[in-house]
Design a protein that fits this description.
The chain is mostly helical. It is built from 8 helices and 2 strands; from the N terminus they run H-H-H-E-E-H-H-H-H-H. The mean pLDDT is about 95. The structure holds fe (ii) ion.
């Protein structure tokens, strides 16, 4: 089981628990598009590795270790999706790609992207160059070209 697989499962389980209060095998299966028997097998391995506690009739709960890793994946996801949307990538693709990038990104790059997203979203003045970039991405021309 790769660390990517562990992260993918924990992310889905964490989101389901946040959303519904519990995570069932069928829901994990439909989110990850993986057959229920494979999901059950994986859940047992995550239990053995201390990421969650699985009780057949009571469902599953994340351990502290599992929840911390799940939260860190979700945080990476949020920042990456926000970054891609700032670049003008449409929501559906930004969400899909965030899930692909979140498992492989260096923490140094992640920290810098986090600062970038905070800057772009919280800057007291809308950054003019960002507006110029969106214009450029759409038209292939620099804003001042049109004005001249
Ligand atoms: Fe994700």
């Amino acid at each position: 089981m790769t660390s990517r697989t562990v992260e993918e499962y924990l992310e889905v389980i964490y989101e389901l628990i946040q959303e519904k209060g519990y995570a069932r095998t069928v829901d994990i299966s439909s989110h990850l598009k993986i057959q229920p028997p494979s999901v059950t097998e994986m859940i047992q391995r995550l239990d053995e590795d201390g990421f969650l506690i699985y009780e057949r009739y009571r469902g599953l709960t994340l351990t502290k270790k599992g929840e911390e890793l799940a939260k860190s994946v979700c945080d990476r996801h949020k920042i990456l999706a926000a970054f891609l949307k700032i670049l003008g990538v449409e929501e559906r693709i930004a969400e899909e790609d965030a899930c692909k990038i979140e498992h492989n990104i260096n923490s140094v790059t992640m920290d810098r992207l986090t600062r970038f997203v905070e800057f772009a979203q919280d800057s007291p003045h809308d950054p003019a160059w960002l507006e110029h970039f969106i214009h450029y991405a759409r038209t292939g021309t620099f804003k001042c070209d049109d004005e001249g």
